[in-house]
Specification:
This protein has 22 helices and 14 strands.
């Protein structure tokens, strides 16, 4: 396969396509050959030739195994083998990036050199490269809103969790008991100000070393997914990999890595079936925050891999957020920083109560004074003003403030999915700028394909703008990603609007009832239920429901409908129903 005389230099390696070999620069500055299988070498050549581009699994398999029928699991084995070689000395992310559902991308800087070179010659000034800039990446901005369910007893039986005394890796219980919590490690690091997590090596519980590759690939993809959450500091996979096979207390691991949370799990293969278990632990106390299991057929290994990665990332995000909110509440007021002010504001926004929105706005304004570029603070401040404008008399100063902060939350430099989604929500409703709102949603989904917030709010906005199919698709996916999210009602809104648009009024009324149960202080949601009932021909029930809406929100009017940026055909339906109920202009 390596007919070219070209060479490629990256990190401390040289790929020599003429000699068909891989070489590593040693401590003396000389290149020494690396032991590597022929398939792995062919795979590396394919990825480097297409460096920076996503190469699909199908393209790789056609190039590495031409005219051969092989299982996709073979690709996992070779990717794992390459990562073990290339990433051994790297402290950052892997040279090979997994692009969920699409394929792989080689992301290390590469220099292409023509001609030959003695494999033991010392490298010139451009022949040795570090994988990532020495000054590191810009620290992530703390961002996102979500809430998991109250901690529940794990549904995983003790037999499904990694066994005590497992030879391949320690179980949670072993880690928790092996080292007393009070024995501070000399390697302990100060915790960062933002939430932080490490993904520990998943245990191969099958007793078959051949399955290690799957566990390693799972960890790599989960780390990549979590890294897209901008408010979360994620420890590189290679740093947490040192704990593989070691019985260390989770509290000690937390101190040594400087993280608040640890994610661990195991992989078990039995026949053609796979079971993956995962659990989220608070490192300081060792308490379980969440645990679950996932099952699938091994023949669908790539789809299962992607599905589990998305589910784990989608659930871990709100679980960590909930824990962080509780931590913030325990802080003394004088110790609050911008992120803690933001967390405290969330509790006042969750109910969508117009009377609580000004309290949230005050906290978020203080957060922005401390950190003016805090994208999520801009997003939630926009939402606070939108609630006041829509439900408390259409004050134009509230609308102007909402739009100003929404534009800041969706500015070109913002790459946080939740900030973009909430900013889009306000721009779509108050600004009636549907193209900009949907463009921000698509940016959010691109930056973080596992963002439950972007799926929840995107589902609603697409349905609101007249695309019920896209809206319900996003809403359904949101519920799969994070079924206990505080934004679940947004999925119900999407279903309510979509079914209303499709003249399925009975079904629409049921969705609006679910929305109003989740947000009992918003009369507009009760009114929406009454409108669906009216068009369903259930006028007596519609009028009774509408009376309850007016008790909650006496200022409801047809202007309320006109201010909310519906698609014209949907707005016309709402107004027709409103006039059946004698709603004033």
């Amino acid at each position: 396969m390596f007919a070219s005389s070209e060479m490629f230099l990256f990190a401390e390696f040289r790929l020599d396509r003429a000699g068909g070999g891989l070489f590593r620069c040693d401590d003396r500055g000389a290149f020494a050959p690396v032991t590597i299988g022929s398939r792995a070498l062919d795979l590396l050549g394919v990825l480097i030739e297409r460096r920076g581009d996503v190469v699909s699994k199908e393209e790789i398999m056609a190039a590495v195994w031409p005219r051969m029928a092989v299982e996709e699991a073979n690709l996992f084995v070779q990717i794992s083998a390459l990562r073990a070689i290339l990433d051994r000395e790297q402290s950052g992310q892997s040279c090979i990036q997994t692009v969920t559902g699409r394929g792989y991308r080689f992301i290390a800087p590469v220099t292409r050199c023509a001609g030959g070179m003695d494999s033991h010659a010392s490298p010139g000034p451009h022949e040795r490269f570090s994988l990532f800039p020495a000054d590191g990446a810009t620290p992530p901005v703390p961002l996102v809103e979500a809430r998991p369910p109250e901690p529940q007893p794990s549904s995983i039986s003790s037999a499904e969790l990694p066994p005590r005394g497992a030879g391949l890796a320690p179980a949670t219980e072993q880690r928790r008991s092996a080292v007393p919590a009070e024995d501070a490690s000399p390697l302990a690091r100060a915790l960062p100000n933002k939430p932080s997590i490490a993904v520990l090596p998943f245990q191969n519980m099958s007793g078959d070393p051949e399955q290690d590759y799957f566990a390693e690939g799972m960890v790599e993809d989960i780390v990549t997914g979590l890294s897209r959450i901008k408010w979360l500091f994620v420890i590189a996979r290679n740093s947490s990999a040192v704990y593989k096979g070691r019985a260390v207390d989770v509290r000690q691991i937390g101190r040594e890595l400087g993280v608040r949370y640890l994610l661990e799990g195991g992989v078990r293969k039995s026949g053609g079936r796979l079971r993956i278990t995962a659990q989220l632990v608070e490192a300081e106390s060792g308490a379980h925050l969440w645990a679950d299991k996932f099952d699938g057929e091994f023949e669908d290994v790539f789809d299962l891999h992607d599905h589990i990665t998305e589910r784990v990332v989608g659930i871990v995000e709100p679980s960590v957020q909930r824990s962080e909110i509780e931590r913030s509440r325990r802080k003394r007021p004088e110790s609050l920083d911008a992120y803690d002010l933001y967390l405290r504001a969330l509790s006042f926004l969750r109910s969508l109560d117009p009377e609580s929105a000004p309290i949230a706005a005050g906290l978020l304004s203080d957060a922005l004074k401390a950190y003016p570029n805090f994208a999520l603070a801009h997003a939630y401040l926009a939402w606070s003003h939108q609630i006041r404008f829509t439900h408390r008399g259409f004050d134009e100063t509230e609308k102007a403030a909402a739009m100003r902060h929404a534009r800041a939350a969706t500015a070109n430099e913002v790459d946080d999915a939740t900030a973009l989604a909430i900013g889009a929500y306000v721009i779509g409703l108050l600004g009636k700028d549907t193209p900009s709102a949907l463009e921000a949603i698509e940016r959010a989904l691109t930056f973080n394909p596992s963002s439950a917030a972007a799926h929840f709010i995107g589902g609603f906005l697409y349905a609101w703008s007249g695309d019920p199919v896209r809206g319900t698709d996003l809403a359904k996916r949101a519920l799969l990603l994070s079924p206990f999210d505080p934004l679940t009602y947004q999925a119900h809104l999407a279903f309510g609007v979509a079914t209303f648009h499709q003249a399925r009024y009975e079904e629409s009324a049921q969705w609006w009832e679910r929305c109003s149960r989740a947000n009992p202080k918003l009369g507009a949601l009760v009114a929406a239920q009454s409108h669906a009932l009216a068009l369903a021909g259930r006028m007596a029930e519609a009028k009774a429901t509408f009376a309850k809406a007016l008790e909650l929100e006496p200022s409801l009017s047809i202007r309320t409908i006109r201010e909310l940026g519906y698609a014209p055909e949907i707005e016309a339906l709402w107004i027709r129903a409103a006039r059946l109920l004698d709603l004033p202009e």
